[in-house]
Amino acid sequence: MNQPTNLKSQIVNRKSKIINLKSFLLSSLLLSSFSLFAQYTDADIYDYIDTYKEIAIKKMVEYKIPASITLAQGIYESGCGTSRLATEANNHFGIKCHKEWQGDTIKHDDDALQECFRKYKEAEESYDDHSQFLITRPRYSKLFNLDIMDYQGWALELKAAGYATNPKYAERLISLIERFNLAKQDTICIQLFGDKIKPK
Asked: Are residues 33 and 131 in the same domain?
């Protein structure tokens, strides 16, 4: 007579353990996600801006891409320069290999496990390749019909063109630009090199 009761008790205990395990895994996932976004501070972001703003302005002159957008993408995609792709591969924009890439590579988990990403000798190569990536792919062509000072339009079109899978990608870029006054770099570029930044 005790057997069914014991069996029922074992099933209840097992279910309880499974629920506890699921709770533990969920908590661990949330904590790891939090630490991923909390590993750098506002001061780190300002340091990143100071380090790369001149390169972003240079690319704005050369490729007609807003420096604010370039910096915001660099901050977001590289975890402010702290991500594995940034530290081990100088890849600040999460650009994958694609079939035409002939340079060095690094394997990294992203949408799938161990995907192929581009590896650069220095960060400026990543910035240059990011610009080339945008100007040579037809899906990004609408970007270059936008006003170069319209960072909101650029952020929205980058998301619409499929640069990132995060549904809030445009909002994240716009938030970074406005919170850290990245549009100031666009203004500086226009003031210094306005005669070189002409519509195509």
From this structure: no
